[in-house]
Amino acid sequence: MDDTQAEGHGSTSPYDPPTAPLHGRAITLGDGIAQQRSRARWVMRLLALGILLDVVAVVSGLMQQSLLTRAANGVQIEEAEASVNDLRQQIVSLAQLGTFVATAVMWLLWAYRAYSNLGLMGTGRTDYRPGWAVGYWFLPLLNLFRPYQITKELWQRSQARNASEWVRDMGTPALLGWWWLAWLLSSVLGQAVARAAFGAEGLAELQSLTTWEIVDSALSIVAAVLALSVVRAIDRLQAQAAADPSATVGASETAPAS
């Protein structure tokens, strides 16, 4: 069965929705959207925390840049001051990394649940199996565009209550495109900065690296704000679908065993 033509229900693919019963209770559209809303709230909280940490990182980077500028101008920097600066930068970086990992995990859990809900709504039609809402993030090259396409479809079908089998001609807000562009730029710049950090030596290189770290954090703020807006919008659309009597259940799904 073609991935782009299957709803995935009843297949043995690892990317299909789980089919093991939980106390014999099937997941309804209302159940699925309630789970999606809970996960969406966690994603938005973590994105907000990430934004706060990125702001802290920008401030910390500016403080380091000031210290490096003073050193370049011949000012003697006390060892204690340099140590405090290094410790502050390390703590901020570790906090950013931990928050990023937590956000990524919760994002994938949210995306899987939200996309699975489309199979319980309207026609029950989806262009991909729900597992690919997670899997495509990890496939080289495909992860440059396929997660965007799935998120776009998720938006379109949620907005239309999945009443039509064909939604690709439906318009979507520019927000989605700006979010994906900001995410790609932030990812590329973040990887470049991380690689450069291992080989930076001398004041000039450290100053340049610090500048790019500040730019990376600022771009991450933009990407996170846009991502938060995307999650909030899709969450709202699915909540409206749950309250709409016309959003009839297109398929039933059973809850995974605990």
Summarize the structure.
This protein is mainly alpha-helical and 258 residues long. It contains 6 helices and 2 strands, in the order E-H-H-H-H-H-H-E. Strands 1-2 form a two-stranded antiparallel sheet.
Q: Overview of this structure, please?
A:
The chain is an all-alpha fold and 258 residues long. The protein has one domain (26-254). 65% of the residues lie in helices and 2% in strands. It is built from six helices and two strands, in the order E-H-H-H-H-H-H-E. The chain has helices spanning 29-72, 79-117, 132-135, 146-159, 174-199, 202-242, and strands spanning 26-27, 253-254. It has a two-stranded antiparallel sheet with strand order 1-2. Helix 1 runs antiparallel to helix 6, helix 4 runs parallel beside helix 6 and helix 5 (174-199) runs antiparallel to helix 6 (202-242). The longest helix is centred in the N-terminal third of the chain and has 44 residues, at 29-72. The two termini are 29 Å apart. Mean pLDDT is 86; it is low at 1-24.
Topology:
Blueprint (H helix, E strand, L loop, with lengths): L25 E2 L1 H44 L6 H39 L14 H4 L10 H14 L14 H26 L2 H41 L10 E2 L4
Helix pairs in contact: 1-2, 1-6, 4-6, 5-6
Order of strands in the sheet with most strands: 1-2
Global outline? elongated
Structural class: mainly alpha
**What share of the residues lie within helices?**
55-70%
Q: Got a strand count?
A: 2
* Domain count: 1
Low-confidence stretches: 1-24
